[in-house]
Design a protein that fits this description.
- The longest helix has 16 residues.
- Helix 1 links the parallel strand 1 and strand 2.
- The chain is mainly alpha-helical.
- It is built from 20 helices and twelve strands.
- Among the domains are: 119 residues, Glutamyl-tRNA Synthetase, Domain 3 (Glutamyl-tRNA Synthetase, domain 3, Alpha-Beta Complex); 92 residues, Orthogonal Bundle (Arc Repressor Mutant, subunit A).
- The chain is elongated and about 110 Å long.
- The structure holds glutamic acid.
- Glutamic acid binds next to helix 6.
Length: 508
């Protein structure tokens, strides 16, 4: 019997979703879809002190925008609900008690002051930050050091306690990671992590293992930053459910900035979230603008994320989501960190702007225009303009500059590019050209162009000398498609108005 693939993304709702998080979602999603499996989203909100209002909704909105919606989640429901750990609180206690029963965990009654004292009392040169582990545990107040009767009394009296894992002293914990292959840890280096807190809530370590088991998770893909927690999870699997039932682990490489690890500081520049956040991210006040606001298309965003740490083994770089599903394989995920390069990210977006029909993103561009108070004409005209300039845009926000002048006269003209070579005969040319345009019955590109060229010949001026001023008058700067095509699009009235405005600026 083949077991259905079930993977999960398990964020803690503590802030926005950044590059690395979405890439974890993506690899989970691609793997699930490739194998006809399920993608589960579980909210790991057991640490109430780090809870951020709105963060869960933000995660859902991001996944929706990226087109990576889960099959099961607090929002979508499913056979293993609830999918929010805070709502599963009663589930975890029995597992913590089972561990105590088996001798793999114990009650600890130490107060915060006692823990503080332990950290200073046992501090030595060779152990500068003592932790609650095999070396220390027998000196503390717990069910390993206190008589059973005393433990019972304390619990019955309602004394606050936590449940800690009892890490074995000299064990090598090994497991096979799909990316790092054989990984091993010395159990003695890991502290006796708290599994159940004084408020009865499990910590992440217990909850992640219990829920992966109860939800039938077959593969657990998560960021490499969790690799150091893996030994605790492996032991919990061994003690509670047997290693045979454990999911296969894949710890995904870090995403690096241009100068190494993607730091918080780089974050504002390179690790920006998917969208702007409407709360203050506790990790940094600077993270306000996201990929969406920067003008990325979701298709490009997932494509570039897929390539951050994975390669298809071919030269192909542009992949649709369906192609990614077909081609994705965890064996091709690199072990070393993947460098995020903003210029390359823009390249992906540019390719996607070219590739997709403009109708796919016209509404997003409309929103950008509305935010800049650029007036809109009818839809047919709007789409025609987008078609005309799309090859010049790397980000959707580039449409503001590249298409805005089709809807309103440029606010400023790059006069400095014209003035040095401006003269009276050019002014006369444009005066005459306006009069000729006025007489034109058919406003079509070829008539606009031949009128211009014939008049230039008549006045004995090279047309090339006149086209730049015309472009600056119509567009504002030295960019855009063929200038006569622009005149054709904006119409007779706007063309003549803009030429006259330009003349008044250049002729002072
Ligand atoms: N709750 C963890 C996080 O916030 C999940 C880690 C895991 O996938 O095991 O990233």
């Amino acid at each position: 019997m083949t077991i259905k693939v079930r993977v999960r993304f398990a964020p803690s709702p503590t802030g926005g979703l950044h590059l690395g998080g979405v890439r974890t979602v993506l690899y989970n999603y691609l793997f699930a879809k490739k194998h006809g499996g399920d993608f589960i989203l579980r909210i790991e909100d057991t640490d109430q002190t780090r809870f951020v209002e709105g963060a869960e909704k933000y995660i859902f909105d991001c996944l929706k925008w990226c087109g990576l919606e889960p099959d099961e989640s607090p929002l979508h429901g499913g056979p293993c609900q609830p999918y929010r750990q805070s709502e599963r609180k009663p589930t975890y206690l029995q597992y913590a008690l089972q561990l105590i029963e088996q001798g793999n965990a114990y009650y600890a009654f130490d107060t915060p002051e006692e823990l503080e004292k332990m950290r200073s009392d046992y501090k030595t040169a060779e152990n500068p930050s003592p932790q609650y582990d095999a070396r220390i545990r027998m000196k503390m107040s717990n069910s390993l050091t206190l008589p059973a009767q005393k433990v019972k009394e304390l619990i019955d009296a309602g004394t606050r306690y936590v449940i800690r894992i009892k890490m074995p002293e000299n064990e090598t914990i090994r497991f096979d990671d799909l990316i790092h292959h054989e990984v091993s840890f010395d159990s003695g280096l890991v502290d006796d992590k708290v599994l159940l807190k004084a408020d009865g809530m499990p910590t992440y370590h217990l909850a992640v293992v219990v829920d992966d088991y109860l939800m039938g998770i077959t593969h657990a893909f998560r960021g490499e930053e969790w690799l150091s927690s893996a030994p605790v999870h492996i032991l919990l699997w061994k003690y509670l459910f047997g290693l045979g039932n454990m999911p296969q682990w894949a710890h995904l490489p870090l995403i690096l900035g241009p100068s190494g690890k993607l730091s918080k500081r780089d974050g504002a520049k390179y690790g920006f979230p998917v969208f702007a956040m409407n709360w203050t991210d506790p990790r940094s006040n600077e993270f306000t603008e996201g990929f969406k606001e920067k003008g990325f298309l979701p298709e490009a965003f997932i494509n570039l994320l897929a390539m951050l740490g994975w390669n298809s083994g071919t030269e192909q770089e542009i992949f649709t989501k369906e192609e990614l599903i077909k081609n994705f394989s965890i064996e091709r995920v690199h072990k070393s960190g993947a460098k995020f390069d903003f210029e390359k990210a823009k390249w992906f977006n540019q390719e996607w702007i070219k590739k997709l029909p403009v109708t796919n993103y016209a509404d997003s561009v409309k929103e950008l225009f509305a935010a800049k108070n650029i007036p809109l004409k009818d839809d047919t005209y709007f789409i025609e303009v987008l078609e005309l300039v799309k090859d010049r845009c790397a980000l959707l926000t580039d449409f503001i500059e590249q298409a805005g002048y089709f809807f309103q006269a440029p606010a400023e003209l790059d006069a400095a590019s014209v003035m040095p070579k401006w003269n009276e005969s050019k002014k006369e040319f444009f005066d005459q050209y306006c009069q000729d345009l006025e007489q034109l019955n058919e406003w079509d590109v070829s008539s606009i162009e031949s009128l211009f060229k014939n008049l230039a010949t008549e006045k004995n001026i090279k047309p090339g000398e006149l086209q730049l001023p015309l472009r600056i008058m119509l567009v504002g700067g030295k960019f855009g498609p063929a200038v006569f095509e622009i005149a054709g699009m904006i119409g007779k009235v706007a063309t003549i108005e803009r030429i006259n405005k330009g003349l008044s600026i250049f002729t002072q």
